[in-house]
Design a protein that fits this description.
The complex is a heterodimer of chains A (about 475) and B (about 300). Chain A has about 475 residues and is mainly α. Chain A has 18 helices and 4 strands. The longest helix of chain A has about 55 residues, at about 105-160. The two termini of chain A are about 25 Å apart. Mean pLDDT of chain A is about 80; it is low at about 1-10 and about 455-464. In chain B, a hairpin with a 2-residue loop joins strand 2 and strand 3 (about 145-150). The model of chain B has no long low-confidence stretch (mean pLDDT about 85). In chain B, helix 2 packs across helix 9 (about 230-245). With about 300 residues, chain B is mainly alpha-helical. Chain B has helices at about 1-30, 40-60, 65-95, 105-125, 150-175, 175-185, 185-190, 195-225, 230-245, 250-270, 275-290, and strands at about 130, 135-140, 145-150, 225. Classes of the chains: A mainly alpha (about 475), B mainly alpha (about 300). The interface between A and B is large, with 62 and 67 residues.
Chain lengths: ~475, ~300
C-alpha cells in the first residue's frame, strides 16, 4: 500500500467513526464481560466452619472488570487504529534495527559468555556473600536449568517440528536414574550424569519409535500420554521410587572427589579456603552453564550436518522430505532421542542439585512451561529460547521479590499466582501475533550464494 | 454376577459423562482439524459455574424443588459455558486460521493453562464440595446379591440419552447441522456456497461447550466435589474416547466414551485402582498408534 492510499484509508476511518457505534460496541463488550464473569468471578466459594460451601459476592470486582472492558474497548476504538499501526511499524523497525546485529554475532557471543562467567563473582561483589546465595541459586542456576531444557526441547520442537508435550518425562527419567543409581548402587554423580543422558535417550527411542509415524497433533497427544504414564508409574511404584514421598539423600556432586562441606577432606580445606556454602553454588552454576553451553554447541553443530538440515526440512514439509528420500522415522527419532538425552542430563543435574526429587516436579505443567519457553523464543532460535527462559523464569523469581505490589493490591496479593496465568496468555498472544516467536527472522543454515534472512511473515505463509 | 452388573452400571454412568465431553472434541476436530486442548478445562469451568449457580439458586429460592433447581442450573450453565467457549474461540483460535498446523494446538494449550490458573485464582486452590444433591435409589435383587441403581445414575444416563437425541436431531435435520457437515467436508466450497463458515465454527464450539456443561452439571450431581485441576484428566480421557470412537464421528464419540468409562471402572474393580489413569492413557497411545481412525472414523487420507 502506498503512502497516499494509507492516508485515504486513515481519513476514511476518521470519517466513518461514530461515537454511537463505538459506544454500542463497547457496551456490547461490557455486557459480554459481565456474562463471562457472572458466576465465576462474582461469587467466591468458601468453606465455612461446618464444611458447607458459602458464597462471598464480589460485585465490586465484577464492576471493575466490566468497567475496564468498556473503557478499554472505547479508547481502543477511538485511538486504537493509529496505535496498532504505530506498534506494527515499531515492531518492524525494531526487527530491522536488530537484523544487522546478526553481523556482530561473534562479539555478542563473547560478551555474553564473559558476562555469564563473571556473573557469580559480580553477584558476590554487589550483593555480598549472604545476598549472593539467592542471586546465584534462584536466578542463575534455576534459569540455566530452564535454558538447557529449552534448548533440548528446541531440537525436538524448533528444529524437527515435533510437538512434544511430554518432555518432562525425560527430565524425570534423568533425575530418577541419577537418584536410584546413586542411592542404591552408590555411583558417583559424574558416572550418573552421562548414564542419565543415555537412559533418557534410550527412553526417547523406545517411546519415539512407535509414535513418530503419527501426524503432528496426534504425536503431541501421545507424548503427553507417555509423560503422564511415566509420572503415574513413578507415583505408584512405591517399592522402587518411594512413591509420592520422593527420594531424598541423593549424594551431592563433588569436585573431583572433594565434597563441598566443612570437613577436613572438603573442597575448602583442600585448597586452604575458608568454608562457605558459596563454593558449592559456584560449582553448580559453572556446571549447569557448561552443560547448557554443551547443548547449545551440539545443536548448532548438528544443524549444519545433513541430519540437522533434514530436521529443518522435515519441519517445513513432511511429504516433500519423503519424496526426496529422507527416512522420516529415523530422522525424527534422532531429534527425539537427542532432545531426550539433554533433558535427561538436565534431570541428573536437577536431582543432584537439590538432593531430593519427587514426582511432583515432573507434572504436565512443567512440560508446558518448557514448551512455552521454546514457543516464546521463536521455535528454532537458540538466542530466543535463552531470552525467553530468562524472561519467564527470571520474571517469576522477580515476581516473588515484588513486595511493594502488596501495598497496592492488599496483603493477600501473591504475585507468583499470576505466573502461569501470564504464561498461558503469552502463549496464546504469541500464536496470534507472532507465531514464529519474538525473534522470527532467521538465517538459513546452508546457503548457495548469499545469505538472506527468512522473515517470519514469509515463514508463516509457508515460503520459508 | 451382581458385582459385575454393578460395575457395568457405574461404568455406563461415567462413560456418559465422558461421551458428552468427547462430542466437543470430535466436532471441533471434524470441522477445523484441531485438538481443542482447552475443552477439558472448559468442562472444569462449567462444573464450577454449575456449583455456584446451584448454591445461588437454592439459597435465593429456598423452597424450590431440587428438580426445578437442577433444570435451571443446567440451562444457565449451558448458556454461560457456551459464552465462554465462544469467547475462547474468538480470541485464541479464530485469528489462527491459515497459520501453521501446530499453531492452534499451542494456542489451545496456552488457553488451557490460562483457564486452570484463572479458576484457581478466582476460586481458590481447595476442593469445593457440596452435600449430595440426590440420594437414594433402587435396590434390585439379582441372584444372590443386590445391585444399587441410584437415582442420580438414572438421571445421568437419561439426561445424556435425551440430550444426545436432541443434539443428533440438530446435526442431522437442521440447516445449522447441514452447514456444519458441509464445512467439515470442504470449508472453502461451503463458503462459496454462501455458508458463513466463521459463524458455523463458532456454533460448533458453542454446542460442544454446552454439552460439556451438561457433563459438568452431571459431574456435580454425581460427585459433588470439584477442584481447579479436575479438567485435565477427564479432558484427556474424553479425548481418548473421541479418538477411540473415531475422531470426527458423533456416534463414535459416545461409543468411545462409554467404552472408556467401562474400561476404567472394570480396570479399577478387577485390577488396580492406582493404575486406572495409566490404563486410560495407554489406550490413548495404543489407539493412536495402531488404529488412528478409531472404531467408526474414516481413514485419514493425506492430500498433497
Amino acid at each position: 500500500m502506498s503512502e497516499g492510499e494509507a492516508k485515504t484509508v486513515a481519513s476514511d476511518e476518521r470519517a466513518s467513526f461514530s461515537w454511537i457505534s463505538a459506544l454500542r460496541d463497547a457496551g456490547f463488550l461490557a455486557l459480554f464481560t459481565l456474562g463471562l464473569s457472572f458466576p465465576i468471578l462474582a461469587f467466591r466459594t468458601r468453606q465455612d466452619l461446618w464444611h458447607g460451601l458459602v458464597l462471598d459476592p464480589r460485585w465490586d470486582l465484577v464492576a471493575t472488570v466490566v468497567a475496564i472492558a468498556f473503557f478499554g474497548r472505547l479508547s481502543w476504538l477511538v485511538v486504537g487504529g493509529r496505535v496498532s499501526r504505530n506498534v506494527q511499524s515499531f515492531a518492524t523497525q525494531v526487527g530491522e534495527v536488530l537484523a544487522p546485529l546478526q553481523n556482530y554475532k561473534g562479539t555478542f557471543r563473547l560478551v555474553g559468555l564473559i558476562w555469564l562467567i563473571a556473573y557469580p563473582f559480580l553477584a558476590v561483589l554487589i550483593a555480598g556473600p549472604g545476598g549472593a546465595l539467592k542471586w546465584i541459586d534462584n536466578f542463575g542456576i534455576q534459569i540455566l536449568i530452564y535454558v538447557m531444557l529449552g534448548w533440548g526441547l528446541n531440537i525436538v520442537v524448533g528444529l524437527a517440528g515435533l510437538l512434544d508435550l511430554g518432555y518432562v518425562a525425560f527430565y524425570a527419567v534423568g533425575a530418577y536414574s541419577t537418584a536410584l543409581l546413586s542411592t542404591y548402587f552408590g555411583l558417583s554423580f559424574w558416572i550418573c550424569l552421562p548414564l542419565a543422558g543415555i537412559f533418557a535417550a534410550f527412553w526417547g527411542i523406545l517411546l519415539g519409535f512407535p509414535v513418530l509415524r503419527l501426524r503432528g497433533d496426534y504425536l503431541a497427544i501421545v507424548t503427553l500420554a507417555f509423560g503422564e504414564i511415566i509420572r503415574l508409574v513413578l507415583i505408584n511404584w512405591v517399592e522402587l521410587t518411594n512413591g509420592a514421598a520422593g527420594i531424598s539423600g541423593i549424594p551431592r556432586p563433588t569436585f573431583f572427589g572433594l565434597p563441598f562441606n566443612a570437613s577436613d577432606e572438603g573442597f575448602a580445606a583442600f585448597f586452604g579456603l575458608e568454608f562457605t556454602p558459596l563454593h558449592r553454588l559456584f560449582f553448580l552454576f559453572y556446571l549447569i552453564l557448561a552443560l547448557a553451553l554443551l547443548t547449545n554447541w551440539v545443536t548448532i553443530r548438528l544443524r549444519r550436518l545433513p541430519i540437522g538440515r533434514a530436521w529443518e526440512a522435515l519441519r517445513e514439509d513432511d511429504i516433500a522430505c519423503r519424496s526426496l528420500g529422507i527416512d522420516t522415522v529415523t530422522t525424527k527419532l534422532t531429534a527425539f532421542s537427542i532432545g531426550a538425552m539433554f533433558g535427561g542430563i538436565a534431570g541428573a543435574f536437577f536431582a543432584a542439585r537439590l538432593g531430593f526429587i519427587s514426582p511432583k516436579s515432573f507434572e504436565f505443567m512443567e512440560s508446558a512451561v518448557i514448551l512455552s519457553i521454546v514457543v516464546l523464543g521463536g521455535m528454532g532460535s537458540q538466542v530466543g529460547v535463552a531470552i525467553a527462559a530468562v524472561a519467564m523464569i527470571g520474571g517469576t523469581e522477580l515476581l516473588r521479590e515484588l513486595g511493594w505490589l502488596k501495598s497496592i493490591f492488599g496483603a493477600g496479593f501473591d504475585p507468583t499466582q499470576y505466573r502461569m496465568l501470564l504464561f498461558g496468555m503469552a502463549m496464546v498472544g504469541m500464536m496470534v501475533w507472532r507465531p514464529r516467536g519474538l525473534i522470527s527472522k532467521r538465517e538459513p543454515s546452508l546457503v548457495l550464494h548469499e545469505k538472506r534472512a527468512i522473515g517470519g511473515d514469509l515463514v508463516k505463509e509457508g515460503q520459508g | 454376577m451382581d458385582y459385575f452388573l454393578q460395575q457395568l452400571i457405574n461404568g455406563l454412568t461415567l462413560g456418559s459423562v465422558y461421551g458428552l465431553i468427547a462430542i466437543g472434541y470430535t466436532m471441533v476436530y471434524g470441522i477445523i482439524g484441531m485438538i481443542n486442548f482447552a475443552h477439558g478445562d472448559v468442562f472444569m469451568l462449567s462444573v464450577f459455574i454449575a456449583l455456584i449457580l446451584f448454591l445461588l439458586i437454592t439459597s435465593l429460592f429456598g423452597g424450590l424443588a431440587i428438580a426445578v433447581a437442577l433444570v435451571l442450573v443446567l440451562i444457565i450453565a449451558m448458556a454461560l459455558t457456551a459464552l465462554w467457549s465462544w469467547a475462547i474461540e474468538r480470541v485464541a483460535y479464530r485469528p489462527l486460521r491459515g497459520s501453521f498446523r501446530l499453531a492452534p494446538l499451542i494456542s489451545a494449550i496456552g488457553m488451557s493453562i490460562f483457564l486452570i490458573n484463572f479458576v484457581q485464582l478466582v476460586q481458590g486452590p481447595r476442593n469445593k464440595s457440596i452435600p449430595p444433591i440426590i440420594e437414594g435409589g433402587f435396590e434390585i435383587q439379582i441372584g444372590s446379591g443386590d445391585i444399587t441403581l441410584s437415582y442420580k445414575q438414572i438421571l445421568i444416563i437419561l439426561t445424556t440419552a435425551v440430550l444426545l437425541a436432541a443434539f443428533w436431531f440438530i446435526v442431522q435435520k437442521t440447516s445449522l447441522g447441514r452447514a456444519q457437515r458441509a464445512c467439515e467436508q470442504d470449508r472453502k466450497m461451503a463458503s462459496l456456497l454462501g455458508i458463513d463458515v466463521d459463524r458455523t465454527i463458532s456454533l460448533t464450539f458453542v454446542m460442544g461447550a454446552a454439552l460439556a456443561a451438561v457433563a459438568g452439571v452431571l459431574f456435580m450431581v454425581q460427585y459433588g466435589v470439584v477442584n481447579f485441576s479436575d479438567g485435565f484428566v477427564p479432558g484427556i480421557k474424553a479425548f481418548t474416547a473421541a479418538v477411540l470412537g473415531g475422531i470426527g464421528s458423533l456416534p463414535g464419540a459416545v461409543i468411545g466414551g462409554l467404552l472408556i468409562g467401562l474400561i476404567e471402572v472394570f480396570w479399577s474393580a478387577y485390577f488396580s485402582i492406582d493404575y486406572k489413569d495409566v490404563a486410560a492413557f495407554s489406550i490413548l497411545a495404543i489407539t493412536l498408534i495402531f488404529m488412528p481412525s478409531g472404531i467408526l472414523g474414516k481413514p485419514d487420507v493425506e492430500k498433497v
